[in-house]
Amino acid sequence: QGTEDTVKKTVGGHPVVVYSKTWCSFSSEVKYLLKSVGVEPFVVELDQLGPQGQDLQKALEKLTGQSTVPNVFIGGKHIGGCTDTVKLHQEGTLEPLLVEAGAK
Amino acid sequence: QGTEDTVKKTVGGHPVVVYSKTWCSFSSEVKYLLKSVGVEPFVVELDQLGPQGQDLQKALEKLTGQSTVPNVFIGGKHIGGCTDTVKLHQEGTLEPLLVEAGAK
Ligand SMILES: N[C@@H](CCC(=O)N[C@@H](CS)C(=O)NCC(=O)O)C(=O)O
Ligand SMILES: N[C@@H](CCC(=O)N[C@@H](CS)C(=O)NCC(=O)O)C(=O)O
Ligand code: FES
């Protein structure tokens, strides 16, 4: 469907993509974490896109099984949410993923 | 104003009150923290109250200066948000406050 294609193009076209909401502290946390390791994510603020934001969130759920924000992709691969990304960082595997994706 | 009185009655009438939103992970985190130290907070889910939820959130901002959720009160006193409450717990001062308020 059109919106799913949009998502695939986006996550394929940027090393790091975060689907986010501007008012959400978990979204802020993951964006801040990525910047703190020297990466500038491509951010899609779903709450600022009107009805298209809801379509994107539904498409993301179809594609990844995840209905929540933040929704993080690295190198086109679905990583998960805030907790998942923080866990990878605590395990030391986040930065290697980012290097491999050409994000840093 | 009427809504500010409602807030004052609520926070005066329960040892622990959390103004929350059901979809918000920071709200979930603070509710879970309080339960983990043996306290059952009185929870007001602002997103489930329709327009009254927005009135309450505005009243809380007038009364506390805090426009965000979660908004935590212990013993009728404004404590802050999720980060503030977690910090008190890390400093060891959360549980004494709860005991003093008669919450546990
Ligand atoms: N454990 C997940 C929690 C994700 C979550 O519950 N996100 C909330 C916002 S904090 C959400 O998407 N709620 C529904 C919505 O905003 O549409 C994570 O770490 O990302
Ligand atoms: N540092 C604050 C952050 C509070 C915050 O930014 N809350 C967000 C939700 S996570 C909020 O209220 N956004 C505006 C809204 O939902 O009306 C805390 O720890 O509670
Ligand atoms: S909306 Fe509060 S943490 Fe996401």
Automatic annotation (TrEMBL), chains A, B:
GO BP annotations, alphabetical order: cellular response to oxidative stress
Superkingdom as given in the UniProt entry: Eukaryota
Keyword Oxidoreductase in annotation: no
Keywords: Redox-active center
GO molecular function per UniProt: glutathione disulfide oxidoreductase activity
Domain Glutaredoxin: 16-79
Entry similarity comment: Belongs to the glutaredoxin family. CPYC subfamily.
The protein, known as: Glutaredoxin domain-containing protein
Organism: Dorcoceras hygrometricum
Full-length numbering of the shown residues: 68 to 171 of 175
